[in-house]
Design goal:
The chain is α/β, with parallel strands linked by helices. The chain is built from seven helices and 16 strands. 18% of the residues lie in helices and 22% in strands. The longest helix is centred in the C-terminal third of the chain and has 18 residues.
Length: 382
Amino acid sequence: MKFLDQAKIFIKSGDGGAGSCSFRREKFIEFGGPDGGDGGRGGDVVIECVANLNTLIDYRYQQHFKAGKGRHGAGRNMTGGKGPDSVLKVPVGTQILDEDRETVLADLTAAGQSLVLLKGGDGGYGNQHYKTSTNQAPRRADPGWPGQEMWVWLKLKLIADAGLVGLPNAGKSTFLAAVTRARPKIADYPFTTLHPNLGVATLGEEEFVLADIPGLIEGAHEGAGIGDRFLGHVERCRVLLHLVDGTEEDAAETYRVVRHELAAYGGGLAEKPEVVALNKCDALDPEAIKAKLAALEDACGQAVLPLSGVSGIGLKPVLGRLAEHIRAARAEDPEVPAASAATGQAKRGSPGFAQGGAEEDEDEWAQNPDGSWSPLDVDDED
């Protein structure tokens, strides 16, 4: 299945049915009078948010959606039936934008949400509606009101607790595959990831959703590479994990390049909490790791965590740091549901780490009473 995160569609609600002009004609009833019924309402255009979708590919091959027209009224005071609704199912995190792509009409952030985007037209009155003491045989029947129509944009912004950012080949997909059950494409060339990937990480009794987006290069906000349009998928994240490739000659400069692109994109990404990690430390000697960590800490102004997604070293501390920020954000805004609950991706009880290096790292770190993770001193255990 291809990933599609935006689509332009035409929607139209149903026209109302026409009223009926009818008179009661029955044997032995001399003055039957008018009995034309009203027309039925047109169908509505309804947007429904469901949990089992993760792309807008359904709107790639069909762009026009029209609700049914209301049925006409009939004699014997019979009102026409309502037209069938047009129900559009979209994944969690979908925004409905006006044709100008700036005005947000709706933002669906939880499975089960639904709203009527366009209401159907009212049905026309039948002639029985116009009978009076002075006009006992009206021959007026109104047509139904037309429905509404408009072009709208559907834009998907994935809901995740933490987002992975960095240059191409920084090891984002490898990290996602190491700490979750997700299996993104991994290769040794740039832009292996062409669309966002989601995974659920488990840390003790906690679980949170990670979003991996394609890499950024210098000038991405101007369209370089594959641009910065996928940054919209981390706008909803509570914290960003900035992975820096340890094999780069100037790790601090690569960090500044990505930070510049985040600031140029806007959307509040530059102000979000950030965890910085130096990846691919398995390919460096201890002196190089120490020097690059010092340079990165000077550039970002915070402690930098070393890790290796391939060997599984340092995964727990990074997840622990992310979990701390996520807990703090949830405490500040408890009404916002967890991403795993909103998207229906909770997998509590399933292993959160791949086999191999991640299991070896299990005994090297311990969880503190406050929920943070710190190195475990083997001598203290004895």
